[in-house]
Amino acid sequence: MMNSPLTLTAILERAGRYFPQVEIVSRLPNRQLHRYTWGQLHQRALKLAECLQNAGLQKGDRVATLMWNHYAHLEAYFGVPAAGGMLHALNLRLHPDEIAFISNHAQDRFLIVDDVLLPVLENFKSKVRFERVFVVQHCQNAAASEYENYEDWLAQASREFHYPEISEQDGASLCYTSGTTGNPKGVLYSHRAIVLHSWQQCMADSCAVSQHDVVLLASSMFHANGWGLAYTAAMVGAKFVMPGPHLDPESLLELIEGEKVTLSCAVPTVWLGVLAALEKRGRSWKPKRDVRILCGGTAAPVSLIEGLARHGFHLIHSWGMTETSPQATVSRLKPEMLDWPEERRLQQRAKQGWALPFIDVRIVNEQGLAPADGGTMGELEVRGPWVAASYYKAPETADRWTEDGWFRTGDIATMDPDGCIRLVDRSKDLVKSGGEWISSVDLENTLMSHPAVREAGVIAVPHPKWQERPLAVVVLKDGMLVSPDELRGFLAGKFAKWQLPDAFVFVSDLPHSTTGKLLKSELRRQYADWCQRSLRFDPLAII
């Protein structure tokens, strides 16, 4: 057989040759819609690659981006690797010191930045060493004179670009993890890993992405490679839609309806907001075409899956991490499950599902390999061709990998006899009460099935007798009221008394990470002294 390398250049050439008229739609920061095609992206990505090489880019050099989801960012996704470089999408929502650390650790040479994000750059530019900065101009007179105009730069291309020699093992994209202890850690994706990940997203039993789809990338392009969907859409020639900075529910629904979206992705927090907007429109409202939603990051509650389904949105639960490119499992019902009662099907779909082809998973606890009995908890470990083998330039983190080559995820899970994975919690988020473990995820998802609850976070608070006890922090839906006793009674049907939260705190909003995940570390900080300061809390009353 021929030894044909699996590279992003092949995907770029395929998109330009076979799908030159298929649209790419971007909602710009000024809310205008920008339209062009895969054919135009192909030509502009090659211009970018040529300009980078003329600027002195060497193989393996890092090119940073500080941009929202739109056409120019997509050009960098393909143009930087085509030049032999590594794309490094900076998380614009991080603290300036964190952004500076990440950029310096990656040793970024160049930066491509949105003009509307220049104030973000100003907050950390004195701490980094970009050789040149190119500004994508969306607004008049927004770019500072000290930087170069992106369009003027591309205009210098001669259109005589020739691809450098690229191996499928070469790095193509660099992403840094969020929510980790210590400094963020880099994951370097190879061309091969990205191509294989794209192939699996086309599988009917995965995301089933095809040229018949209209894909809306509602996950940030700086979050785990935008979940890989940009590369997959290019490979199959799907129409591709990007929302820019406008991720509010009404803006997303406007794109879904106007562009006839069939597939989207984002963390549950985004879809909770969309569901609330849909309920306001009325239960009979549905988009013109049914929409598949790839959902991950945190566990989606059954109430969200069920609620979205009423409006023609089919949520596909998946699990993954920055370290897994990111998709590693998917929850698609098996044929024999289609005849199950609806409630049982919903409970099954709420699990994280089965490992994708070529991905291996196992559950390990203090006793060793945990049995696949659907109840024994342990840490989820994973390995496969698009799973990181190490962090980028971080040898001190080698203990995240086992001696036999598995990645320790830090997620606590169970495995059913048929291999289906259900996430129980992050190891740091489990509540250990009197020597027994309580899943905060299970409590949260059940709380969010209550008709009055929009979102809930359950955390462990220190306890003088039981070591830790669960505390529920709850956001109610607009206009709804419910008492702590009612919520406790609602949970009592599914949990033992000792597993129930000792108290319920009602707030207007919950803190979230830069990628939309519930920020439990902030909740733990806010309520660390709950036992001492709450008069309603009886630390010895739990039986």
Structural write-up:
The structure is a single chain. With about 550 residues, the chain is of the alpha/beta class. The protein has three domains: about 260 residues, ANL, N-terminal domain (Rossmann fold, 3-Layer(aba) Sandwich), CATH 3.40.50; about 70 residues, Luciferase, domain 3; about 100 residues, GMP Synthetase, Chain A, domain 3, CATH 3.30.300. The chain is about 25% helix and about 25% strand. It has 16 helices and 26 strands. The strands form five sheets. The chain has a nine-stranded mixed sheet, with helices on both faces. It has a seven-stranded mixed sheet with strand order 7-6-5-3-4-8-9. Strand 1 and strand 2 form a beta hairpin. The protein is globular, with a radius of gyration of 24 Å. The termini are far apart. The C terminus is likely disordered.
